[in-house]
Design goal:
Blueprint (H helix, E strand, L loop, with lengths): L3 H8 L1 H8 L2 H8 L4 H28 L3 H28 L4 H6 L4 H16 L2 H25 L7 H8 L1 H19 L3 H26 L7
Length: about 220
């Protein structure tokens, strides 16, 4: 039987290709993505990382052994501290003051994604939660590598590209894939099915998140 990650990626390979070629990522690679769209994206991504970090922290609390607890707790710290430091640099570059960020509402897509992570974290078992968290790691790693290979130089978004294509992030993603496979391999068939559903939904939400940034999505009412 194939690993969970291999099967999950195969189920979503077509959607990954859609994500890879969507306007936001195509224009980011070309360096032509508008500043307004990138500002919308980094603002929403900073909001998202708070919810994502909480999901990782809950996964750490649910982990079955100390080694996984430490790994997931460190990932939660990375989501909040390391990646938000990158956003902080962009916030300074684009003049997004802390009070402006704090006052900005979550977009519908960001709110949906954070709500999905939060609900899964509190209501589903460890294996399903890992499956819900994995696409954010994995798709960013794949998109980062893909964009790096075709990025225009110079590129105003080089720091973003280098973060997600960087060796440190790539290693963290490999570890998360292995951890998820390890957990789901021992799961009952019903839990494995729920893990696949969670992975599928998170991939859909990854697409929605980038698409919403490109459309400068706000609440319609």
């Amino acid at each position: 039987m194939s690993t969970f990650s291999a099967a999950a990626w195969a189920r979503n390979a077509g959607l990954y290709e859609t994500i890879r070629n969507m306007p936001f990522n195509t224009e980011l690679a070309a360096g032509t993505l508008s500043e307004e769209r990138f500002k919308h994206y980094i603002t929403q991504d900073a909001h998202y990382l708070i919810g994502f970090g909480k999901g990782l922290a809950i996964a750490a609390a649910k982990a079955p052994d100390p080694e996984r607890m430490v790994q997931l707790a460190n990932s939660a710290q990375g989501a909040i501290v390391v990646e938000r430091a990158l956003h902080g640099t962009f916030f300074a570059d684009y003049g997004i003051a802390p009070e402006v960020f704090e006052a900005s509402p979550l977009s519908p897509a960001c709110h949906h994604y954070v709500s999905f992570i939060t609900a899964t974290a509190w209501s589903e078992p460890y294996e399903v939660l890992l499956a819900a968290l994995l696409p954010c790691f994995w798709i960013y790693a794949e998109v980062g590598n893909d964009i790096l290979a075709r990025a225009a130089s110079p590129n105003p978004y080089a720091a973003w590209i280098e973060t997600y294509a960087g060796e440190e992030f790539q290693d963290a993603v490999k570890t998360m894939i292995a951890t998820t496979d390890e957990a789901v391999a021992e799961a009952a068939p019903a839990v494995r099915a729920k893990a696949h559903d969670a992975f599928d939904r998170a991939v859909q939400l990854e697409w929605m998140f980038w698409d919403s940034a490109y459309r400068l999505e706000t609440w319609p009412v």
